[in-house]
Amino acid sequence: MAKELTSRSENYSQWYNDLVLKADLAENSAVRGCMVIKPYGYAIWEKIQAELDRMFKETGHVNAYFPLFIPKSFLSKEAAHVEGFAKECAVVTHYRLKNSPDGKGVIVDPEAKLEEELIVRPTSETIIWSTYKNWIQSYRDLPLLINQWANVVRWEMRTRLFLRTAEFLWQEGHTAHATEGEAMAEAKQMLEVYATFAENFMAMPVLKGVKSANERFAGALETFCIEALMQDGKALQAGTSHFLGQNFAKAFDVTFVDKNNKIDYVWATSWGVSTRLMGALIMSHSDDNGLVLPPKLAPFQVVIVPIYKNDEQLAAISEKVNELIPKLRKLGISVKFDNNDNKKPGWKFAEYELKGVPVRLAMGARDLENGTVEVARRDTLTKETVELEGIENYIEKLLDAIQENIYKKAFDYRTSVTRNVDSYDEFKVEIEKGGFLLCHWDGTAETEERVKDETKATIRCIPLEASEEGVCIFTGKPSKQRVVFARAY
Amino acid sequence: MAKELTSRSENYSQWYNDLVLKADLAENSAVRGCMVIKPYGYAIWEKIQAELDRMFKETGHVNAYFPLFIPKSFLSKEAAHVEGFAKECAVVTHYRLKNSPDGKGVIVDPEAKLEEELIVRPTSETIIWSTYKNWIQSYRDLPLLINQWANVVRWEMRTRLFLRTAEFLWQEGHTAHATEGEAMAEAKQMLEVYATFAENFMAMPVLKGVKSANERFAGALETFCIEALMQDGKALQAGTSHFLGQNFAKAFDVTFVDKNNKIDYVWATSWGVSTRLMGALIMSHSDDNGLVLPPKLAPFQVVIVPIYKNDEQLAAISEKVNELIPKLRKLGISVKFDNNDNKKPGWKFAEYELKGVPVRLAMGARDLENGTVEVARRDTLTKETVELEGIENYIEKLLDAIQENIYKKAFDYRTSVTRNVDSYDEFKVEIEKGGFLLCHWDGTAETEERVKDETKATIRCIPLEASEEGVCIFTGKPSKQRVVFARAY
Questions:
Q1: Helices (DSSP H) in B96-215: which residue ranges?
Q2: Chain A to chain B, count of Cβ pairs less than 8 Å apart?
Q3: How confident is the model at residue B250, as a pLDDT?
Q4: Are residues B281 and B269 in contact, defined by beta-carbon separation less than 8 angstroms?
């Protein structure tokens, strides 16, 4: 095969890069750190978007759109926010080019300097809260439950396709509430939405928890997160939901008159997932043959490959296939019939394996005679011959089974590499093996920093479901519950 | 009413601005020239997107995503393109901020200057064709039929909500073909898609034509366009589809091996519509009471307002409404039941009139007794009392009738202000009255410029359906067909 991948055991990181490129998901662009999302990759992202958008709307949210640019001064209005975000940004300083005096190309027109520089949004809390100030006067204007689908830019020095890129696509929810309790409930609700999406659609088990102060979003009082585990034993933060308290309302002076006619600052949340989920999806399930996609997010769920020696055979097969396709579509199953005559069946088999199509049907002359079809599962790489009559119902069930099996495999893997660790000596050995290490920790940033410096492991989250109490494995001080350590993407 | 609009006859431009703000469609942001699209406005844009996206996919296109930034040098690779586009752009020169030495806020870090400036895309031909170079080797790689939904930035000096903003949202299709004929057919096909969308969904009649050389897209050999007419008699370019020839392939050296094993440059098209369509939609149909939305693009098509004196009455009405809602939804009709107790029916009536909801149902105590409901049409502002039994079918037909009536009204208006003009004296009088003037023109840029300077009218398009031949009304030289003159947005 021309498109052979590096194996995971040989070089996991290279395997990932190979896969993203060879499965036509994305590639690096001419602009440093920015990717091109190719049609097949984008089709998966569209599926992700559609499901999340539906879930957001079902929980009462609406979409809107705020400017790409943020005035520089806005970033410094919230003290913690500017520390975390204002540094590695794309800065617009001019608004015009002019012909170069030497006649070659264009140069920046020095006359067209902006009075105040504009920052390409790294996240939109500041521009949105400056807008909300005009929208909120009374408790009757609350809650505001708004989401935006947008591109953002963070000038990352080391980039990797989907996982860390200078520009990425995401959604950012920004909600405004009359009470602390409501805002906190919203932040938790969106964490649940993300967890449900990750598990039910991406077939990716996630831990739900809160971030330690070190890992918290710049400007948040509490950051909730879902943490997934990749096949190489490294963790990946897949989504965050922030309880922002009244920080942004105070920074932008957003107050409201409550039911008792008292003036108070508005309470806020923000929450987001990004094209990083594509990286998580790829690394959760795929194998050395290529992508493995959960049926619920596959651009097409079934591919049909005809095997024929002459036009007559192809015509006979096509007739059967053209009867089957509408039956599948009626069940909501997406299907592609690849009758391209330029490629051989073997090439097609490898191609759709690489692209992670959940179910492949192959139909040849003998199948026609016997009234059968060959059904191949991408997740298990197994094949069987099935009667054509009623196969649409068989496939419907099979897709459910594949979705479930992919989840179970990821869940079992995670379980197998999640363990309690009760001493720092053991920790230093275990962290090399990867996986989630559940440890008692004294709750201090100092200890967390020390462990990170010495082992590159960070606290991925403090699980929402608390374990027993104990003593910190690093300092021996009291600990209220185990927390999750891992090396992370 | 608190939300009263300026009337169209008093000040059309002010009426438009009032309406956009008061109907909660969009507002200006803290960033010069950039708008905030508010949830109600964005919901209309989502409807527009969904329909267009479906139509693009039905014609074989797929979506992808290309970088926001374009290296400065790319813009000057296509000579005509740089003249048209490279000038009024947002220019990123730096990638980092740092704390200000005076401790107040942040400043641009002079150490973090980019070697080559990046331009925020004003359109993506250059970055996309630099990418296509790697995707295309053989005729087997063609055609590429790719669309992108994205934000773009053009540093406009005078901006108006939706009609002309520094940042706007759009889609841009970029296709690559093996032959000139195929590319030309694609450009024409997409013009038809736009025209069909404008007429069938926006209920907005459009003229189809080609642009004169003066008005052509920078880098195109031919620009096809749809031109709409607003209620004030001014034209609005609603969508363009460009036949780019081999210009961008030559600029980025994109060649392919054809079926005869010969190397040739690839043929290209690009085509786009933007949030400007929102402006066109608003100005095509709305009146002094507010928005008038075609049912096919209304965020909700039916609003139900209960009229009650006490909780008991509300409960009885709600029971009936809750039986009706699923019947409407089953027919694909979107409906909102506004049982908000804080607002009076009169306020609600005015509010939904302002927001252009096509059908309003009001139900009171007497309706309950009689088994009726009051049905109000937004387009005609008429009311009638209808039997509740089977009303869902009545409403389904009514929505179709409204869609048709809105189109017909716009069509009849356009017809009434479209006329042949056969002398320049007459032209100067008629152009003051607005509308489309069909005139013979000698085909020269000089004449077009002169007319523009003297009357502010431009050639909106050379219609695809040619009229009789004649002589230019400005110079007396021969003319092959009448062209469409108008003042334009």
A1: 125-135, 180-200
A2: 190
A3: 97
A4: no
The DSSP bridge partners found for residue B287 are: B290
* d(C-alpha B428, C-alpha A316), whole Å: 69
Judging contacts by C-beta atoms under 8 Å, the chain A residues touching residue B253 are none
Q: Is the pLDDT of residue A9 over 80?
A: yes
User: Is the peptide bond preceding residue A306 cis, with omega within 30 degrees of 0?
Assistant: no
Identity of the residue numbered B63: N
Question: Is residue B127 less than 8 Å (CB to CB) from chain A?
Answer: yes
C-beta separation of B238 from B277 below 8 A: yes
Span B444-460, mean pLDDT?
97
Number of H helices, E strands in chain A: 14, 27
CB A185 within 8 Å of CB A224: no
Using alpha carbons, select from B460, B436, B438, B29 the residue that is nearest to residue B233: B436
- Give, in degrees to the nearest 5, the angle at Cα B169 between B164 and B171: 115
pLDDT in tens, B72-126: 999 888 877 777 766 899 999 999 999 888 878 899 999 999 999 999 999 999 9
Helix and strand tally (H, E) in chain B?
14, 27
Q: Which residue has the tokens 């979705």?
A: A403
> Cβ of A475 under 8 Å from any chain B Cβ?
no
Task: Please report the pLDDT score of residue A357 as a whole number.
Answer: 98
Partnered with residue B147 across adjacent β-strands are B63, B173
| Cα Rg of chain A (Å, integer) | 26
- CA-to-CA distance for A268 and A123, rounded, in angstroms? 15
CA distance B71 to chain A (A): 7
* Residue-wise pLDDT tens digits, B353-364: 999 999 999 999
CA distance B213 to B188: 18
Residue partners of B413: CB distance under 8 A and separation at least 6: B229, B231
pLDDT digits (tens, 9 = 90+) for B225-250: 999 999 999 999 999 999 999 999 99
Helix axes B391-416, B311-330, angle to 10 degrees: 70
Q: Read out DSSP for B26-37? A: EEE-SSTT-EEE
How far, in whole angstroms, is CA B396 from its chain's centroid? 26
| A155 Cβ under 8 Å from any chain B Cβ | yes
Torsion, CA A231, CA A236, CA A239, CA A245, rounded to 10: 150
Are A53 and A146 contacting, i.e. CB atoms less than 8 angstroms apart?
A: no
Q: Is A175 exposed, middle or buried (0-12, 13-18, 19+ CB in 10 A)?
A: buried
Give the N- to C-terminal CA distance of chain B in Å, as an integer.
30
**Chain B partners within 8 Å of A93 (Cβ):** 91-94, 108
Q: Do A178 and A186 meet the contact criterion of CB atoms below 8 Å apart?
A: no
| Whether the Cβ atoms of residue A268 and residue A248 lie closer than 8 Å to each other | yes
- Compute how many other C-beta atoms are within 10 angstroms of the C-beta atom of residue A386: 17
Q: How far is CA A245 from CA A126, A184, B190, in A?
A: 14, 8, 49
Sketch out chain B's domains with CATH numbers: 12-285 (3.30.930.10), 300-404 (3.40.50.800), 418-486 (3.30.110.30)
